[in-house]
Design goal:
single chain; four-stranded mixed sheet; 8 helices; 51% helix
């Protein structure tokens, strides 16, 4: 249920950004309809409620909510090495990675080759905010993951946080994201678009 909800959330955010209702848009719409048709009207209303609550939660907090739910529900795939870093460790890593000398004059670019739920990017946004910077204007991000569930979680959270990002599905070691990556494997946040 959680994975269906996250995928539908990602599909609906992405398709809302498409002005051109092309073949990819139609395929994503059909995928959304195929998933939602498995649920009653009451369950569909709950999905909408859950999305609203998730969106509201980012008004006050910058944290990895979806990754936390995913790991607490033991949904991670240990066979692919899917163990998400605890958020407080991600924040410490971001504190160390973003220079204390950063004065906010430049836009910072981030590449997350195995994004999981976007935790390291979200932690970087939290660090920038704690230092008094508007992370929405100071970050450009490219994330990639093998697992579609991770792509969807990252995309939804970065979209709701207003981060300029591309989130791509694929093997970063064999085929890292570059311009020309197959469009069906790429999600762009509303801010990017």
């Amino acid at each position: 249920i959680f994975c269906d909800w996250v995928e539908m959330s990602a599909l609906s955010i992405q398709n809302a950004c498409f002005m051109n209702h092309n073949e990819l848009w139609l395929k994503r719409e059909e995928r959304y309809k195929a998933i939602i048709s498995n649920y009653s009207l009451e369950e569909q209303r709950k999905f909408t409620e859950m999305f609203g609550l998730l969106s509201e939660s980012f008004d006050d907090n910058i944290e990895d909510l979806l990754g936390e739910i995913y790991m607490r529900s033991e949904s991670g795939n240990k066979f692919t090495g899917q163990f998400f870093t605890p958020f407080h460790i991600s924040v410490v890593t971001a504190e160390l990675g973003i220079s204390k000398d950063y004065d906010g004059s430049d836009v910072l670019t981030f590449s997350e080759p195995s994004c999981g739920s976007g935790k390291m990017i979200i932690a970087s946004a939290a660090v920038l905010k704690s230092r008094g910077f508007d992370y929405k204007k100071k970050m450009k991000v490219v994330c990639q993951d093998l697992d579609w569930k991770c792509v969807y979680m990252t995309y939804v959270q970065l979209s709701l946080l207003g981060i300029d990002a591309i989130v791509a599905q694929g093997d970063t070691l064999c085929k890292p994201y570059t311009k020309g990556h197959p469009e069906k494997l790429v999600f762009r946040t509303p801010v990017y678009i």
